[in-house]
Amino acid sequence: MLKLTVYKKVNMSRNFFLLLLIVLLVLVGGKIMLAHEKLATYKEAMKLFQSGELVAAERKFRDAKLNFSVTDHNKDINLKLSILSPIREVMEDLDEKAADYYEKKDVDKLVDMYERWQKSRKKWVSGTSIQKGMYEEMVVLTKLDQDMESYFSTIKKTNLAKLQNNTANSSSDEEEIFTTMKKIPSEYYGSDPSSKTKEIQSSFQTYYAGKINTMTAANAPVVDLVTEGLRQFGMLEKFSIATSGLKETLDSHLLKVLTSALGKNDFATFAEQANSIKKLSANMASAKVFPFIEKSKNDLLAKAKNLTAGNKFADAISIYEALKPLENTDQFIANANLAWDQYEPIRVLQRLYPGKEFANVVNAKNKWGADSVVAAVSKDGGIFFGKLKGEEAMSVTEGSLQGVQAINKLDFLSNLSKSNNPVIYMEAKSSERKHHYVAYEVRSGSMVEILDVEADNLTIEAKNVLLVDNPTGSSAGQPAYYELDNDGKYQFTNIKVDYVDIEVGDITKYMGKKVRFTAYAASKVNGEALVTLSESYNYSSGQWEKTYLLLKGKTNFTIYTNYIVIGTFNSYTNITTDTGEQVRVPVFQVEKVE
Questions:
Q1: Which of these, 228, 286, 297, 285, lies nearest to 258 by C-alpha position?
Q2: How many other CB atoms sit within 10 Å of the CB of residue 223?
Q3: Distance of alpha carbon 92 from alpha carbon 59, whole angstroms
Q4: Is 572:584 a contact under the CB 8 Å cutoff?
Q5: Which helix (H) or strand (E) holds 242?
């Protein structure tokens, strides 16, 4: 084994430390160089920043930040980068993604990039001068504005070409073109805010007009023309584009087609064409073709009627058969009678009860499962409710009135019923009040009286709640509530209270409000009661001082008596008390004394 001498050991140790010293010197030297380099980069970045070359400055600030040799100026570097780098990063991201989405034909995401760009642009341009300057440099650098204009202009031209070349093969293709063109930002249609809408609408109007004009020029079958017209109306309305041009073209052409058929006495072709054309009525309400169809049809029906009267049955039947697409001529007369009966259903009651004279009648339509309903009261006191549905016979429910004088009003008020059954409501003459209110509910084929009250007025306060003014009976002279009882008949439930109970001494706190209180009539002034509100002894004057309330509106008060009164305090007056004192007192207008 090789053994080291003491000399060799010392020599090796000395060599090691020399080597270590050299390494440390190199590291220190390198750090000093890097520090100088970072300082130089920072200074260059600041020079660029101050001269307004912000993109170049941001790049130098990033280089300086990546130099970790020293931390000098890091705070300022980070601050500058926090302002400049987000703008560069966003603009680079927008530029890259916009190009990618354009290549992929992803218009939605391209529009998202445009909107993101506009939002960022608004933020930066309205921000600090540094943000605005950095943004403007990045626009120049990325050419994002030019790229966006190129992308959207190309998309617009491509889709317009599809319309101009008539290469859209279906409604879905048209809708896709329209949707794409709508997505393109307005600025790429011109400086006028309305340019976008005008160009899109004009393009589609021209496109659709070309299709229709081609069909009319080729005298296409009416059914095909109507089908295309309906499709175009649907698309134009979906796109919120005016349809006036389409209406005019169709109206003019279809009038010529129908006139031609009538001129040849080809009534069957006329009726078939007219029936197809009527499908356009919802979209062409003011068109001339529809009054023409109706007039021509009515003229032919009148001609058939005259032929029937003249015993030319074959010719009449021929016309009726030809008009079947427009009219159900098999039941022409029967249908007219049915329509009349439904309009005036009292005619059916009169036929069912030829001996009755109906003095009061009310009609309604499309209620209670019927096409028409009628309620009528006969002079002999009968009450009738009839229902007509389709061609079925009228179903009639009968009843009789008891103790009802001359009826002034007859109506349907189904909201008086719990179940929304038909309710026949009457206002009749009353010997005790202004009106006699009576109501009958039609339940399962029978008449049930649910209301019988004589009063000055009646209003429906809420569902199944009536407010009756001054009814006969226990609630006379007061507004009273009537509600349905368990048997479904309106009965008195309670008095309507419209006042507040107070202490008479607090009356001045309730000016203009209806109140009730107990008052002691201490004396009278001009026949009206004077109530003492307060009383105190004035030691300075050696006299009693009092405050009063005058009860006005009733003159039959007895002094030294307590009264419960209802009314309103709404004014003051001057009075002379029984002691000859002039005082100003509140006036209480008495409405009722209990």
A1: 297
A2: 14
A3: 14
A4: yes
A5: none
CB atoms within 10 A of CB 64: 25
CA distance 257 to 262: 9
Question: Which residue from 326, 335, 331, 330 is spatially nearest to 297, judged by alpha carbons?
Answer: 326
Three-state SS for 464-479 is CEEEEECCCCCCCCCE
Tokens of 433: 């009040």
Q: Which residues lie across from 590 on neighbouring strands?
A: 567
Q: Please report which helix (H) or strand (E) contains residue 456, including its range.
A: none
Say if CB 163 and CB 177 are below 8 A apart.
yes
pLDDT score at 337? 59
What is the distance between the alpha carbons of residues 372 and 386, in angstroms, rounded to a whole number? 8
Helix (H) or strand (E) holding 358, with range, is: strand 358-367
Query: Dihedral angle at the C-alpha atoms of 131, 134, 140, 144, nearest 10 degrees?
Result: -60
- Say how many CA atoms lie within 13 Å of 504 toward its Cβ: 23
State the number of CA atoms in the 13 A half-sphere of 116 facing the CB: 16
pLDDT of residue 408: 93
Residues 52, 133 contacting (CB under 8 angstroms): yes
pLDDT in tens, 341-388: 888 899 899 989 998 999 999 999 999 999 999 999 999 999 999 999
Separation of alpha carbons 98 and 92, rounded Å: 10
List pLDDT tens digits, range 159-170: 999 999 988 889
Q: Which two tokens stand for residue 71?
A: 């931390």
Phi-psi region of 387 (alpha: psi -120 to 50; beta: other; left: phi over 0): beta
CB 540 within 8 A of CB 566: no
Task: Fill in the amino acid letter for 557.
Answer: F
Would you state the pLDDT for residue 288?
96
CA atoms within 13 A on the CB side of 195: 10
Residue 438, strand partner residues: 426, 452
**Which residues are CB-neighbours of 503 under 8 A, at least 6 positions away?**
517
Report the DSSP pairing between strands 490-495 and 446-455: unpaired
CA–CA gap between residue 45 and residue 38 (Å, rounded): 10
What is the model's pLDDT at position 555? 72
Note the pTM of the prediction, 2 decimals. 0.48
Residue segments in the chain with a per-residue pLDDT below the cut of 70 = 1-35, 68-71, 306-311, 313-314, 316-317, 331-340, 578
Q: Which residues pair with 358 in a beta bridge?
A: 378
How far lies 258's CA from each of 9, 244, 288, 422, in Å? 126, 21, 12, 49
Q: How are beta strands 490-495 and 479-484 bridged, if at all? A: antiparallel
Phi, psi of 521 (to 5 degrees): -80, 100
For 470, phi then psi, to 5°, come to 55, 55
Handedness of CA 289, 290, 291, 294 (dihedral sign): positive
pLDDT of 312 reads: 72
Q: Which two tokens stand for residue 405?
A: 């004088």
Q: What is the pLDDT of residue 77?
A: 86
What contacts 407, CB < 8 A, 6 or more positions away? 359, 360, 377, 426, 427, 428, 429
Nearest to 120 by CA among 140, 99, 96, 139: 139
Longest dimension (CA), the chain: 155
Nearest to 506 by CA among 549, 536, 545: 549
